[in-house]
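Action item from last week, closing it out:
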Amino acid sequence: MTAVTLDLEDVRAELHVDDVVQKYGLRVRNRGSQYRLTECPCCKDSSSSEAIAIDKRSGRWCHHGRERDAGGECSGTLLDLVAVCEGLNPKRDFAKVLDIAAKIAGVDARQLTEAERAERRRYREQQALERQRQADAEEAAVFRESVLKASSTWLRTGRVRETRTMRAYLRSRGLDATRIVEEDHARSDLAGNVCVPLWDLGDSEILNVISRIVSETNTGPKAKSLTGCSTSGTLCGRVADITKGASVIVTEGVIDTLTAIQRWPGRVVLGANGTGRMTRIVETVAPIVLEMKGKLVLVPHTDEPGQKAAIKAGEAAIAAGLVLHSTLIVIDVAPHKDLNEAHCAGWEL
């Protein structure tokens, strides 16, 4: 008798995110089309900004800043999530991972008839459509909540606008605090942290306020975002600012974004809120830059994650039709670690 094995596609189709979350007791927050976590199931590190996300529809998960594209290991498919929750290697222990996932999904190793497979496909399509509708509704609700929370927070920082602490910090990074404040690229909270807006990639709505912590005694993350708000978008500049013939600069982090604004006035500067988000920005803006007959300039960090992100972003730009060294320029600030360090060292292009 021929042994009947588990069908990978059957397991993938029947394995739902909610089943995995419940199985491993993952403490998640419902954020529209995503679940957000404060603890990574892979590296076990905590994130007060809920930087670990699981897509409800696809099951793909990612610890932003530590995903594979950024040089880490904390990302993958829903099967990969099962593996890390079990302490297994997704590749080496694949057969065991598949068996565990099948048990979670309620899939057994038996030969299905064509009628049974057709019924399964019909049921899966119905379920997928319903999950899509629910996720779209939740995503819209999260978007509205993010806009309201971020807008009110940005207005409150406007009452402070700047503090001596913020001014001194910007000067220590070689930046003109007066110009940055007057042109409203950044504001200060009561603690003197440097606050910048995070704009939606499509609708030019403010979705978050990202604060660069300036305290020298800070041992936590260098940048913090508003809890419960989207963390994907562009720092300072907006996609809607791209006009005919514009030069668009994409870099990473609050301080490098402000540095690019100071060094290249008149350009559209779009900051990535973390290494892993540079590609998503480029995927969005590259077709627009091409249509507007402009140029796209990438200014990545020079560490390994930064270089990997730059390669992937560059590939996305080329796939959209931009040409390296012509309409796509990649600036290398080595031996400095990033644009701001190069700027403070007197670097010239």
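Closing note: The first strand starts at residue 28 and ends at 31.
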